[in-house]
Amino acid sequence: MQQAHLEQGDFFMGNFQIRTDLALEARESVSEADSELRGVRVEEYYKEEEDIQVTKVFIDTKNAAKIMGKPIGTYVTIEAPALVEPDEDYHKEISDCLAEELLNMIPDAEKEQSVLVVGLGNRDVTADALGPRVVDNLFITRHVVRAYGKAAYNCTKMNLVSSIEPGVMAKTGMETAEIVQGVVEETKPDVLIVIDALAARSTKRLNRTIQITNTGIQPGSGVGNHRNALTEETLGIPVIAIGVPTVVDAATIVGDALEKLLGDDKEFDTFKYMGQHRTAFSELNNMYMTGKDIDAVIKRVSFTVSEGINIAMERSME
Amino acid sequence: MQQAHLEQGDFFMGNFQIRTDLALEARESVSEADSELRGVRVEEYYKEEEDIQVTKVFIDTKNAAKIMGKPIGTYVTIEAPALVEPDEDYHKEISDCLAEELLNMIPDAEKEQSVLVVGLGNRDVTADALGPRVVDNLFITRHVVRAYGKAAYNCTKMNLVSSIEPGVMAKTGMETAEIVQGVVEETKPDVLIVIDALAARSTKRLNRTIQITNTGIQPGSGVGNHRNALTEETLGIPVIAIGVPTVVDAATIVGDALEKLLGDDKEFDTFKYMGQHRTAFSELNNMYMTGKDIDAVIKRVSFTVSEGINIAMERSME
Amino acid sequence: MQQAHLEQGDFFMGNFQIRTDLALEARESVSEADSELRGVRVEEYYKEEEDIQVTKVFIDTKNAAKIMGKPIGTYVTIEAPALVEPDEDYHKEISDCLAEELLNMIPDAEKEQSVLVVGLGNRDVTADALGPRVVDNLFITRHVVRAYGKAAYNCTKMNLVSSIEPGVMAKTGMETAEIVQGVVEETKPDVLIVIDALAARSTKRLNRTIQITNTGIQPGSGVGNHRNALTEETLGIPVIAIGVPTVVDAATIVGDALEKLLGDDKEFDTFKYMGQHRTAFSELNNMYMTGKDIDAVIKRVSFTVSEGINIAMERSME
Amino acid sequence: MQQAHLEQGDFFMGNFQIRTDLALEARESVSEADSELRGVRVEEYYKEEEDIQVTKVFIDTKNAAKIMGKPIGTYVTIEAPALVEPDEDYHKEISDCLAEELLNMIPDAEKEQSVLVVGLGNRDVTADALGPRVVDNLFITRHVVRAYGKAAYNCTKMNLVSSIEPGVMAKTGMETAEIVQGVVEETKPDVLIVIDALAARSTKRLNRTIQITNTGIQPGSGVGNHRNALTEETLGIPVIAIGVPTVVDAATIVGDALEKLLGDDKEFDTFKYMGQHRTAFSELNNMYMTGKDIDAVIKRVSFTVSEGINIAMERSME
């Protein structure tokens, strides 16, 4: 996940501000007065049969981006409670929905393209293994088409799909962005898809929500550390990030519990308090909270996501 | 870890009582008035050069066991801050200390014995992989001695070491205790050593503390679920449990944060409050908190523990 | 695979006799004169649409068992060339066929049963990982039914499925049979299903053949080492073994090449020659030969096999 | 290993020529008449106490390169029979020897350098996992020095070590050389060290031999496919390859067995015969042969190799 890749403290030295990688949650946490804020539009639809809720948040202006703490761009959230449950077909209905929204976001998706999928995260930490595991199940075609032509797949139109698992900085000694930049320059894909585990604000969204955004990956929400960004600006090609929240920050959960406890006391600002007393709460830095069945969940969710990408790559050629 | 193996709710449906697998912490959390309670003795020593603190808690009476929430028996805690740090020799000084205290606890350790080491936990969940990973690095001898005699190792005295990784119930459909019981009856070891990841109360003990106890494993601290116990009583042979805390319960951490916040208000009992409002805090059930570098830490700590066992098995034959 | 679990030399010190775990191949290698031998019956059918060939070899007499080098019993071989190729549905047609033949072999398959599936082999050696990987994908129900009743699955009839991955002797210090025997005695399943990687005689059967037999596992084809057997005789319940050949023995492949080279010279008995000159060929001991894409193949084949078992368990309840 | 990464047939469509990645074996297989061939020099020394034989083959001329089937350059082979055996210190004496010879080969090794270590191969195929596993155990420093300066390590001189595991083409859709080239251009290391599993001609060198060469990696010994090369010529920086033979080609082993069988018949050229009858032997393509305890061996050998690199990186700063 984005934090887990970072050096210690990069993220959490702050004042325990509310932390979420989901635009949907950022939207919710903006106070009511701001809720009709200019520059943010929301669209949504619900698929009843599949029990899938799709919410699209469009952040259109710099000012809105600042208030939301997220860059300008489109954020599509697929909420599918079924995602955490076992299913014989690996939730093909969710993969289909993901494929559709992914195609909506890829520019000129109907044209033949070269697509590089980057699986961020650490394979050896269960909650951070989403990226590597999604990449494991992709249908990779670039090398075959380059060697044998599209005839190898009996078709005249074919996306070239490649993938890389760059690993985490503690193991490589390199910024993820350095590795991806190098590979992009060398292999010149048309589009980048980046997969990453996310942090949610609420446990109720864990492992059952997929976010797709065309803003790429901006660790720390643009707070410094631009070397790490994987964005259209830094890489020169569209960058679409797909993420699933698998953890909740410890500080967030403690803050939420405090809020509940002191809920009636409107004067009291919990997160400000925690920021002011950050030494007392310092043990929460670099800790995260995750569910006890995370291994089975990650296995299933990563399969559903990789199937979604596989379907999108194939469907765009129809 | 013990909770992670259990069905959802087994443990946490309680009233958010303070939860720790460390007798040392249970001792600390008993209020001052009780602190000289009869039936609990404490011994300790400090190895200055190695910065290793060893504390032995002896629970001698039923009453003390009840107050402490831990069964009658001996609990040795090795606190070694260095354990979380990389080291060229994998902290041989800690392995040596563990070996010594382990030999103190094995009855008739100087005699040739057949020792079965059980690696509890889930290899696929990083924070719960301690048991399986310790077992990976053991020096296994039973099959060789049985096939070729002790001559195979050029010695006249030799422990027979075997090991098993029973897996978690969600994968096997069987209680761990059923599997271990069956293997014990069939292979008749003299002693059982059980390795498991633990939950600590405080993040400051995470991954740097080793607990050795002759009380075996009693999920839920004996609160029901006796089928799951791995103890001398259920198995008929001495059972020594070695554990390292790798997680902190979410509920505990929230409770601690509340305590800090409301520290001056002696009237307010945080954990009682949480218990009373358990619906509000229900999202904390089945969540745990762990450090972000857990993969590297588990790799190193499990090596140090397995080396400790290897050294003990060899040294007892000198 | 059966050989890989064994101590060095258990198997290969012989005189380089033809080595195959497939009854089908044993049948083929019996010379023509013997081919109408009494006590061996063969039945077969071909599913044209799915390109699946099913051959059933029945060994009915002790004499036939001796000539074939296989115990008395039924051996069903499913040959499905598609098995080595990627498929969106993981070759459901092959899983279905496996399910059907498995149900034919389980006594009283239509009754509710407790079924223990044993995944033999070494997860860390790709070609030997079939058993552990099949077990990874099973639908395990025993613990749920025992805890919550069949109502948990909204049904009135339900098999209790459990599984174990006993590991290899070099890691456990115990015979596989000791572990399985213990678990069987403790959990009392009605039927045992054992999964194992096999050795084939011919590379053309690698990874595309599934053998199902009611003779269980008899390492070394009953040549000594009875402690290791997993059979109805040793365990007291029906034992059905499912295997897929993933390797070819080095000695066999060399022998075959020599045969080709010297094919016209009917006087020359290659394998006898190799047996007589076994020192010269000793480097072939403890070596095996496998394909270069073994990782992808094992991943797919193990999924197809586990789906076959899942389907059988569910279908028998209809 | 180099073959395993390649498309099917890249390598083996030949006429079953003798295949070895070891210059030492190429040297041996050159017939006696050529053995004093100009342009090839051999130096050797033996460390009696450690039982380590070091042989250096210098190929100095184009002609010699052609006869040997290996590019111009230096090839150091460390033969250490102990490497296959367990050892408490992970064979530190072999790591030391590797460190020394590696430093001899790195230009200006005494100067501070930025070193990128590339772990080639497939983590999921045991015999091909050497590269990824060596990289797992390296002491990575680049990111720390860049973020905090050398002061982080309390020293004034420090190599910057980084690493990457590029994965295999079937998983990435990219040539290894594309990925490495991109990362080299982006991160500008001074030296590249490439780790790979090798194929040996003889089983007696399996897993107990380490080859270090300054010629980099040239799949197919320069026979076409230059895109794949990782050499000073293609990358612009010195490329040192470290390899350990973990497999023997099936075709080679069959050829050797035939030679033994027909040893007296000097007229008969086995490998030429196999080439001529390549259809008959085609099943040997894409097969390799490996030992049955390959998992334990790879685990140990990769640790010894990574320790050798760690020692070299540290020692060069003394």
Q: What features would you describe in this structure?
A:
The first copy, chain A, is of the alpha/beta class and 318 residues long. Helix content of chain A is 34%, strand content 20%. Chain A has 12 helices and 9 strands. The first copy, chain A, has helices at 2-5, 23-29, 62-68, 92-105, 130-136, 142-148, 169-172, 176-187, 232-235, 250-261, 270-276, 294-315, and strands at residues 40-47, 52-59, 73-79, 114-119, 160-164, 191-200, 209-213, 239-249, 287-291. In chain A, strands 1, 2, 3, 4, 5, 6, 7, 8 and 9 form a 9-stranded mixed beta sheet that branches. In chain A, β1 (40-47) and β2 (52-59) form a beta hairpin. Chain A is globular. The two termini of chain A are 34 Å apart. β9 (287-291) of chain A pairs antiparallel with β9 (287-291) of chain B, so a sheet runs across the interface.
Per-chain topology:
The structure is a homotetramer of 318-residue chains.
Chain A: H1 2-5, H2 23-29, E1 40-47, E2 52-59, H3 62-68, E3 73-79, H4 92-105, E4 114-119, H5 130-136, H6 142-148, E5 160-164, H7 169-172, H8 176-187, E6 191-200, E7 209-213, H9 232-235, E8 239-249, H10 250-261, H11 270-276, E9 287-291, H12 294-315
Parallel strand pairs in A: 4-5, 4-6, 6-8
Antiparallel strand pairs in A: 1-2, 2-3, 3-7, 7-8, 8-9
Helix pairs in contact in A: 4-12, 5-12
